[in-house]
Amino acid sequence: xxxxxxxxxxxxxxxxxxxxxxxxxxxxxxxxxxxxxxxxxxxxxxxxxxxxxxxxxxxxxxxxxxxxxxxxxxxxxxxxxxxxxxxxxxxxxxxxxxxxxxxxxxxxxxxxxxxxxxxxxxxxxxxxxxxxxxxxxxxxxxxxxxxxxxxxxxxxxxxxxxxxxxxxxxxxxxxxxxxxxxxxxxxxxxxxxxxxxxxxxxxxxxxxxxxxxxxxxxxxxxxxxxxxxxxxxxxxxxxxxxxxxxxxxxxxxxxxxxxxxxxxxxxxxxxxxxxxxxxxxxxxxxxxxxxxxxxxxxxxxxxxxxxxxxxxxxxxxxxxxxxxxxxxxxxxxxxxxxxxxxxxxxxxxxxxxxxxxxxxxxxxxxxxxxxxxxxxxxxxxxxxxxxxxxxxxxxxxxxxx
Length: 401
What we know:
The chain is α+β, with helices and mostly antiparallel strands. It has helices at 2-12, 15-47, 66-69, 80-87, 153-167, 213-223, 244-252, 261-303, 305-313, 318-358, 368-400; strands at 57-62, 92-97, 99-100, 104-111, 114-121, 124-125, 146-152, 180-188, 191-203, 233-238, 255-257. It folds into two domains: 2-49 and 269-400, no CATH class; 57-266, no CATH class.
């Protein structure tokens, strides 16, 4: 019986048609699995503290004019009303204010107890949610007297490749930040106090010397109780950095952005968009190829309608008549899945080597997400094809009756 049905099947089968389905399905399945696997592999880079695809943050300040520098122009600070206005904009997710120290800060820095240099500096704070560094030691107590400090990564590069190199001083890596000793002297309101500073990390997002908000509030209240604490800079988390409303608002309100952050935001947004588009295109190709297979099998059954009806009339069950067509679809889908996974493994090995060169700290992911998606697609499509063939044969059977 089985060999008889296979002979009927081979009489009308189109090798070119099935080959076209096979390669289209293979291409579509591979793109879908590659898109998911690539996203899964690079997702840690998106979510880590200094990830390059984190939600976009813009540093906003008022444009300084010549009159402002002479003290005759508008204030460079942001009032509560202005902060609230930015927060209410459609492109804005959240807003944080920079709070600066209003007293003199003198800091001497050394390594392992050996003083290297000293300078005047300043501190700023922002809400913790905007800081891209480990905050496990981010707390200040006036009784403890140690100030946790986060420095910009650009400062580390300037020290290592500029100051340290010219002064024959040792270079410092991020891994040995605990060896940096800082003596901080605060002066203001007729008082002076010496505190210990401890560098706990570096920031790629904020180009300033960060300290906890609790320290800024305590020190300003003690050393500059009468100072104006109006913020001069804001950090704004935006929903879509390509939104034209951002540029319009910045220009209309005479504001400026730090370090062309908007251009970087557009690049990361388009990268996300391309990833989604790749997955969608792969899914569309897969759906079309699945449809082609179903149509091909359906046409094979249609061409053999008379012969299949004769087989049903002489006593063969619809299940036995449907089985060869169902095995063909399941076999094709299974082969596509196996080849897609093999190709994905090869391609993934290539791009992971490239990512490890750029991000040595990146951890190796797993193929499980792609395997689960591939098996899910295989089972779903195979089930649909099996049911379609079964229904078509049942229609032939019912007409016999």
